[in-house]
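Retro notes, item 3 of 5
We never archived the inputs for the flavin-adenine dinucleotide complex last cycle. Fixing that now. Sequence and ligand:
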Amino acid sequence: MSSKKTINFLIVGQGIAGTTLAHKLYENGKSVHLIDNKYQSSSSHIAAGLLHPMSFKRAILSWKADMLIPIAKAHYNAFQTTFKTKVFHELDMIRVFSSMEEQNNWQGRMADSPMKEIIGDEELSLGFPLGSGKVNMAGRLDVALYLSRSNQFFIEENIFSEEQFDYSQLTYSETGVEYKGIVAENIVFCEGYKITQNPYFNYIPLSPTKGEVLIIKTKDLPDCILSQGCFVMPIGDDNYVLGATYDRDNINQETTQLGKEQLIEKLKAIGDFDFEIIEHRAGVRPTTHDRRPILGTHPRYSNIHIFNGLGSKGVMLAPYFARELIQYITKGAQLNSEVSVSRYSKKHLYKCLV
Ligand SMILES: Cc1cc2nc3c(=O)[nH]c(=O)nc-3n(C[C@H](O)[C@H](O)[C@H](O)COP(=O)(O)OP(=O)(O)OC[C@H]3O[C@@H](n4cnc5c(N)ncnc54)[C@H](O)[C@@H]3O)c2cc1C
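Structure as it came back at the time:
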């Protein structure tokens, strides 16, 4: 290893994962440097930023949501205070029922713990024919602003490089890594779905999912999030995000006519609203088969790590799991086996190119 100044962490990828990890490391007094290729494959820039605790299919709490959401909100609120930039908005969320069965199921859940904290018992008179129910703890992260304000800070601190990471330039020793003159004790790859092209981690069987959203303008919708097969969420100035599609077959960042039609059809199922389409976006979520994040260390290289697999819930998962990863790397804390990268090693390492 060279005699140049050594930093603690080199982070590749400045999406929600890399950005949140960098802030948490900073809070812990660690030195970092980030690299990103101008957000070329960024899922975070496409994300609607919706945060909510439900798995609507079965009207149950989504995985660990009651623990993850308070930690996520605390992180984004602390960010707002530090950077004097409003990025998180508390919002009411309304589930619009599509059948009597759903309405009955919902009412049945109201008494169950922990659902009684999550499902509001207020009577809502929004006029939906089959009724609606309120979901507590929801909100919206302005992801683009969270990333751009963070990027401004990283540039001011001189800890950001805009480039495509070149794996062939990475060298490795017992004490750390070196990349184009940057010497670091650790490197963490936070590359979203492009991890599939990373020679250190391409053995992981990611299961990426393409998604499309529309930005629409309307005066017909209420100032809250509506959900029923899709979601429609206010983002200010009578603009709303309408999302999202799920496509496992066409992994690219192209918007499609089919995606647009699917979203419009879903909105029509909620109600007959007048709207104008302002923008159409597509991206690829870094989803995993078991819907759990991926954290940990390369099975052969002790200083090369991964933070990925945030799937469709990056806003909720990133703050808690960034903290878990830091405690694991810096303090030797045990990683939850459900999220550890080691769940892949035995079966899949044979494919590893490095
Ligand atoms: C349509 C859609 C809607 C969504 N809505 C929501 C939502 O409402 N709420 C929610 O929580 N989540 C949502 N998501 C999911 C969310 O976007 C992801 O969970 C999250 O953004 C993943 O963040 P990440 O940092 O892991 O990856 P990314 O955001 O993809 O970040 C990876 C970064 O690394 C860069 N990069 C990759 N490889 C390299 C390289 N070799 N060199 C340099 N840079 C590199 C990329 O360009 C990118 O900037 C949505 C996703 C989509 C597609």
